[in-house]
Amino acid sequence: MASELFNNGQHICVKFSDLSDTDSSDEAVQSNQFLIVNDGHGALIDPGGNMTYSALVMGMGKYFHFRDLDYIFASHQDPDIVASINKWLVGTGCKVLAPAIWERFLPHFCSVGNTKNRIIGIPDRGMNITLGSAIIKAIPAHFLHSEGNFQFYDVTSKILFSGDLGASLVHHDLAIEPVTNFDEHLPTMLPFHRRYMTSNKACRLWAAMVRNLEIDSIVPQHGRAFVGKEMVNRFIAWVENLECGIDLMTQEHYKVP
Description:
Layout: E1 2-7, E2 11-16, E3 33-38, E4 41-45, H1 50-60, E5 71-73, H2 79-82, H3 85-91, E6 95-99, E7 119-122, E8 127-131, E9 134-140, E10 150-154, E11 159-163, H4 172-175, H5 182-196, H6 200-210, E12 217-220, E13 226-227, H7 229-240
Parallel strand pairs: 4-5, 5-6, 6-7, 11-12
Antiparallel strand pairs: 1-2, 2-3, 3-4, 8-9, 9-10, 10-11, 12-13
Helix pairs in contact: 6-7
């Protein structure tokens, strides 16, 4: 099921939340894929792996013909982010924008030669990307959780597509709904963030950066979105004070079995 996050008639942001989830908890984790369309131009954010490809092609057809795709934006290198890259490169003429430090790793998802002149490395400082008449900002989110990691801020919709930061592990039936009670939502986020985010230092640097943006929604790649200034600010404050990753490591975690 596709849900519109923003639509002013010219600029549309769409979320797909049920393409990879299953009813069995030991199979694939739920993940969200995103389509941005502006003035006849289209980009996919974190299109996922092979299990999402066919359904995503079908689902995005209401808004945009997949063969006309301009870009794929990859926040980092994980399989649930961009393992389907070979199919998109074969089926479309799109370019792939991905963190520069992962630029030479992505071809391992592809047939030989398919990535030649098709991957654009995002420098560590980030960059502005033009999509039609819109600007999408690739902003640094290094070590949250990948060493080279980016989030994508859509200037028009004021949506921050936050990748794994903000992820909650929920069924797709719930993922389509925004968070309404932050405290009740915390248990679906906390274990994931404690393990997958690297350190509080990275969290604090990120929080200081995004407070300079006008954000109406934070939409992660797994689970539920944070919609509205109050919920956005609550989430940023939580991340700023989060102890995670190496903050929690002790000698007990480094023992020869």
